[in-house]
Write a structure and sequence with these properties.
The protein has two domains: about 80 residues, no CATH class; about 180 residues, Muramoyl-pentapeptide Carboxypeptidase, domain 2, CATH 3.30.1380. About 35% of the residues lie in helices and about 15% in strands. The strands form three sheets. Strands 5, 7, 8, 9, 10 and 11 form a six-stranded mixed sheet that branches. The protein has a three-stranded antiparallel sheet with strand order 1-2-3, with no helix packed on it. A hairpin with a 2-residue loop joins β2 and β3. α6 crosses α8. The longest helix is centred in the N-terminal third of the chain and has 25 residues. About 25% of the residues are buried. About 20% of the residues have low confidence.
Length: about 280
């Protein structure tokens, strides 16, 4: 009897193996893990890439250890688990929700000791004063005029210059922010850049009344900028009717989503500054 049961078990195992082999040969795609995206993932990758301006870096989406990733020019990069759908099955535009991040402090924890390493790597040698800065323009990019963000008119302890790598990062953040507002049906607003390159002279003056200002500030290297999260500039034609108002908190939530995604791509370090009311960002 024991031998009979053993033979029956072995026969069932062999039968299952043969069936699976036949299924695999007939339809290889059923075992391709790269195609195992659940039906709730309504994102069309190429469409998202076109909207955000980096479709050339996206080839495919796949699930790796329960997380969603995309294949970019630097290998696999993480993608937010909340995917974006632009149209429903009837072709109507979908208003995507605002999710924000689960914690500002935990999502953006990059402290000075982390950011300054990247600043030294990618930045220029510190600038002594404003006069010297005028002779360093071959190393720096002027960012004072841009359609995607504005420089804070109250900024008096830094000057609007960044290294090219940081300038490109700021441009991308600002454009992605506008794209996110559009797909979430939120009236357009521009980001406000509150601090950029600081000379040694600026740092000394700032430390007189700001105890949080570091003598080894990342802003000295032209790799770092601050973006306000409690103030924005409304985009509106002067002759058009008044638009509906948007709470600063709502805009902050959208901005946090943008920064989280870019940080997860390992393009920058981000620190959530409570007292200064800004995100402190260094290129990496």
């Amino acid at each position: 009897m024991k031998r009979l049961k053993k033979n029956i078990f072995i026969g069932l195992v062999l039968f299952i193996v043969v069936v699976l082999a036949i299924v695999r040969c007939a339809s290889p795609s059923v075992v391709d893990h790269r195609r195992s995206v659940s039906s709730c993932d309504s994102l069309v990758v190429d469409e998202l890439g076109d909207s955000l301006g980096y479709s050339e870096a996206i080839e495919e989406s796949e699930l790796v250890r329960g997380k969603k990733w995309r294949r970019g020019t630097d290998g696999l990069l993480p993608v937010s688990s909340r995917q974006i759908a632009f149209y429903d099955s009837s072709g109507n535009a979908i208003k995507n929700r605002i999710y924000s991040v689960y914690s500002f402090r935990r999502t953006f924890p990059d402290l000075q000791n982390v950011q300054v390493v990247s600043a030294r790597k990618w930045g220029v040698s510190p600038v002594r004063d404003r006069k010297e800065a005028e002779h360093r323009k071959d190393e720096l990019v002027y960012i004072g005029s841009n359609p995607y963000y504005v420089i804070d008119e109250r900024m008096n302890r830094s000057i609007p210059y960044l290294v090219p790598r940081a300038s490109e990062l700021l441009q991308r953040i600002s454009r992605n922010f506008l794209d996110s507002l559009a797909i979430k049906d939120v009236p357009l607003h521009l980001l406000i850049v509150t601090s950029v390159l600081r000379t040694d002279e600026d740092v000394q003056k700032l430390r007189r009344y700001n105890s949080n200002a570091s003598a080894e500030s990342c802003h000295r290297y032209g790799t770092t900028f601050d973006i306000a999260y409690n103030r924005y500039v409304t985009v509106q034609h002067p002759d058009s009717a008044l638009r509906r108002s948007v709470r600063s908190d709502s805009l902050k939530w959208v901005l946090s989503e943008v920064l989280r995604d870019i940080r997860e791509e390992k393009l920058c370090f981000v620190k959530y500054e409570v007292r200064q009311g800004c995100f402190h960002i260094t290129v990496r």
